[in-house]
Design goal:
Number of domains: 2
Structural class: alpha/beta
Shape: globular
CATH class of the largest domain: Alpha Beta
Helix content: 40-55%
Radius of gyration: 20 Å
Strand order of the largest sheet: 8-4-1-2-3-14
Order of helices and strands: EEEHEEHEEHEHHEEEHHHEHEEHH
Strand content: 25-35%
CATH superfamily of the largest domain: ATPase, nucleotide binding domain
Largest sheet: 6 strands, mixed
Number of strands: 14
Length: 340
Amino acid sequence: MAKAASSALGIDLGQHTWKAVHLQRRAGGRVALTGFATREVGGAFTGEEQMAHHLKLLLKDAGGGAKVRAACLGGDGVILRIIDQPPTPVDMLRSALRFSGQSLLHQDCSQHVLDCDRIGAAAPSAESVKFLVAGAPRSRVQEIDGVFTRSRFPLRRMQLAPVALFNAFEFTRPQVHAEGPFLLLDIGHTSSTVIAGIRGGITLVRGIGYGGDNLLRDLTLDGAMDRASALMLMQEGDAGMAQAGRESLAMVAREVLNSIGFCESQWDRPIAKVFVSGGASHAEMVLQVLSDEVNLPCELWSPFERCEVALPGGRREAFDQANWNLGVAFGAAVELLEAA
């Protein structure tokens, strides 16, 4: 059995911004944040050399010498599905996905790298078991692995961003995660993710083509106002900004309501609140508008709620601004720390 890591680095390869979180295991099962970094990459690369350049600067800013690393990716082309299968060993289902993925997922996945895991615990007499199947384009996986290897930062694990966010929530809110039901809304730069689960398992994962960039564009009237002024007015609760924000966030609220309706019909149990994260989520106006539109409390959560913050001097202020956007990187790192 592999020895658990004493420190780990989680890296979120977002389409607009890359983030890194360095965690250390301490006595008594405690986890400490000892470094983090964010770096805007613009979403377009000219080749592996440019990716390697951004990676080296990101890890330099994150600090720490963790040799155990995990990278998370999302965006176009990824596959994340929940399937029902007869009780099957995970290794056997992995082999079946490798050779018969199209018949199991009902889509062409010949150009994807696929993996799976069981969701929750099934009764011994259960006729079917739920599995989470994740996949990413093979070319993208090979490119990322090659960049890390050539940069002398070999990866221990690669996973999809929603799975890492789910792991972060499990660590941060263990009782809610174990007892459920719960619904997470993560507002990214150009897209958002909804994850719903109950009793430690995932029921629903869906992407929404709307992010913080869309909100800012709507608040600035497509450039009629500069973004800094719009952000300041939003933070101050300006009535005009609140109305513009309400109109902009209407689509997200509608998708969240649809997800709630679907899950509650599956569980026969109500969702009490929505847990919100992501760069735009720390604005009180956003939380209030979403709460009004969804008719449920929308609560901001940070993956560092149960984590010691042991950052070097001068980094705390930057962390306070960025921590709402580090959930995916945190989830990747904490899973490595807890893996046997």
